[in-house]
Amino acid sequence: MKLLFKQRIFSWLDSYDIYNEQGEKVYTVKGELAWGHCLKIMDQYGQYLGTVKEKVLTFLPKFELYAGEQYLGCVQKEFTFFKPKFVVDFNGWSVQGNVWEWDYEIQDQTGRAVALVNKEVFSLADTYVMEIDRPENALYVLMLVLAIDAEKCSSQS
Fold it and tell me: Cα–Cα distance between 47 and 93 in angstroms, integer?
């Protein structure tokens, strides 16, 4: 399953549309005004599904993941000198590859690829392609990619 993650160009807050391979919108992500990033995820019908919320006042960036009101886990940037690295406390997953250049893989605890994430280089807005192993992982992969994207946006500003 492939999902295309496109940032809206003219938006005051973080705002994204996520499309399937047929070009149909399957998720909408809207940023809320808050201390740190707070991204609400809705399905194609506008029903709330989950939140990626930055934990403020931490030494390194940390993002909590929620499905509805249920806490699922978190993603935290690890202290490194050269390449960004993230510790994932969720589903037994890890992030491998070159996060700096947006070419990475999300793996389960056995090392099997759950998703491949690549950034399209020549586009006006940030656009990512997520190749996901199973449809039931799509929302969780999206949450993880949103957390990494939010951290990169914060560190660039």
Answer: 26
